Amino acid sequence: MKKNMLKWNVIALVGLVIGFSSCGEEVSPEQEKVVIEENVVVEDTNLLDMIELDPDMAYSVPTPNELFAVIKESGVLYDGSILNSPDNREKYTSKKIQALNFGVYFADLAFASNFEENASILSYFGAIKVLSDELGISNALDAAIYEKVEFNLENDDSDSLLFLSNDTYFEAYSYLEENERGSTLALIVLGGWIESLYIMTNLGEYEEGSNLVDRIGEQKLTVGNLMGFMMKYQDDSNVTEVMEELADIEELFWSFEEEEGDDVSTSQEEDVYVLSGGSTIMVSAEQYEKLKELVSELRNEIIEGEL
Amino acid sequence: MKRLFTNLLLVALVIAPSALFSQNCRNIVKYCDHAKREGFLRNGQSLSGAFAQGDTAEITVVVYKNMEYRMSLCSPTHDELDGKFEFKIVEKITKPYWDEKKVSEVEEVAMLDENGDDMYDDFGDIIYEEVATIKTIKRRRYKKQDVVRYDNKKDEDAQEFVFISDKTRKLTIKVYIPLPEGGDESQGLEAETYACVGLLIEHQPGPTTGFSR
Question: Chain B residue closest to A180 (CA)?
């Protein structure tokens, strides 16, 4: 109740000031007989400009591999039970669903590869292979990929497996670009991002300021690039449909506040530059739970083939 | 009709080279020198494309906290450009500021005498005076400001940039594609030549504690 009162007071104050600024006029000293000076300070009204997407700019989206390399450093543990079962691949009949789940399986593969869960890797490569055939992009993948994966699994060579999963993503990505199938690529990228977000939000409970929650909040930066990337292909109705499905998640991310930090600076240590300072994205427990719910909903529609 | 045909031909002549070139430039980044041996993985945000020489290409990427990145450029189709690229890394920083403005509001109020009672004129009407209230209105605003984080011209034209970041951030990479030898920007469209350029981004986990290596 107290909170509501405060809210209404702030609204009233903002309304009052807006009223003054629209009705008021610039000071003209000659008109004044009696002058009373008052100071009105309006609190931070969070009028930060929303994202401006530049149609001439190229927007890139970090891959699941890169994201899980970061997540691994956060100290969270692997949980294979939350991933999409490779057996589900048979459910995917439309090209849209196949492309989205191609991205989902890539994210699952990236998660398993980064956490060196070798037992799951082959089955995810298998699911990706099946979907690549369905999508007509199997030419992009190394024909000897299975032999390489099996060889590295036998030799317990996790580094090589990580390189293989990274390269496989690249080859598929490049093939789609070369063959002007950007809309399929957009669906794959979106599927991979949603699955990555789903995995992250299911790896732990909300804990303010924890590494995991911070990494999730930072996806606010990625969602802008993701939308910028997908915008190029929105003439395709499949892309537009999934962009619509993503809208609630995007809007929630925009509600995450940014807390001012230290001034930005660039320094150099040996041959490496260090970028420091800037704002930090904050996530509340309520926002975290809402995000978890929205992401689960969309992800489940994707893996159930219902989108 | 003839004029339309001529116009279409002109458009085709201008557009076709870039379109054809752009096809051949796909995935050109895989020919750039990589740093796999140093543990770097090719990053999915790398870029390949056909760019008009003399133009500036821009790409926005997201870099993660505590990851180490290496950015480099190459042009396998135009070896002569290697070593001559100019690039800047720019970050849009949100700067808060107070937007302050004074406004006045004028209203008529009854004049009061020494005893605080309303004053009247000879006709028995209340005498009014104009009172101007000046209010200082402060509003917290934010503006986006471009901050150059790195400029290779200030680093002896270095062609690679290796860095780590203490926060996840969005960066814009602006790459200037040099003109051919003896080229002149004033020559216009007909003189445009295209080069296949790859912006290779690589990553690996950075140092786990602090930033020392």
Answer: B23
Q: Could you read off the pLDDT of A233-255 as tens digits, one per residue?
A: 999 999 999 999 999 999 999 99
Least confident span in A235-249, B147-161, B172-186: B172-186
Encode burial over A267-294: b for 16+ CB neighbours within 10 A, e otherwise: eeeeebbbbbbbbebebeeebbeebbeb
The verdict on B130 and B151 lying in the same domain is no
B135/A38 touch (CB, cutoff 8 Å), yes or no: yes
Query: Comparing C-alpha atoms, which of A266, A272, A168 is closest to residue B35?
Result: A272
Statement: residue A49 has pLDDT above 70: no
- Give the domain range for residue B128: 99-138
Q: Please tell me which residue of chain B has the smallest CA distance to A36.
A: B133
Residues of chain A with Cβ-Cβ distance to B132 below 8 Å are 27, 31-36
Provide, as residue numbers in chain B, all residues whose Cβ is less than 8 Å from the Cβ of A269: 211-213
Confidence class for position A35, pLDDT limits 50, 70, 90: low
Whether A57 is covered by a domain: the verdict is: no
Put simply, whether A58 touches B (Cβ < 8 Å) is: yes
Please state the ipTM of this predicted complex.
0.79
pLDDT above 90 for B61: yes
Stretch B59-83: mean pLDDT, rounded? Answer: 94
Residue A53 lies inside a defined structural domain of this protein:
no
Cα separation, B44 vs A196, whole angstroms: 15
Q: Closest Cα partner for B63 from B205, B209, B197, B177?
A: B205
Closest chain B residue to A68, measured at CA: B205
Q: Which of A94-98, A122-126, A191-195 has the lowest mean pLDDT?
A: A122-126
Name the residue among A199, A198, A192 with its Cα closest to residue A63: A192
Q: What is the pTM of this model?
A: 0.78
CB atoms within 10 A of CB A301: 16
Q: Could you tell me if A43 lies within 8 Å of chain B, comparing CB atoms?
A: yes
Q: How far is A117 from chain B (nearest CA, A)?
A: 18
| CATH code of the domain containing B181 | 2.60.120.380
Q: Residue B210 domain-assigned?
A: no
Dihedral sign of CA atoms A64, A66, A70, A76 in order: positive
Number of domains into which chain A is organized: 1
A1 touches chain B (CB under 8 A): no
Residue B197 to chain A, least CA–CA distance (Å): 14
CB pairs under 8 A between A and B: 230
For residue A44, what is the DSSP state?
Answer: -
- B149 close contact with A: CB closer than 8 A: yes
Answer yes or no: do B69 and B152 share one domain.
yes
Contacts of B73 (CB under 8 A, 6+ apart): B32, B82, B85, B87, B159, B175, B197, B198, B199, B200
* CB spacing of B43 vs A35 below 8 angstroms: no
Amino acid A6: pLDDT: 38
The answer, for B209 touching chain A at a CB cutoff of 8 Å, is no
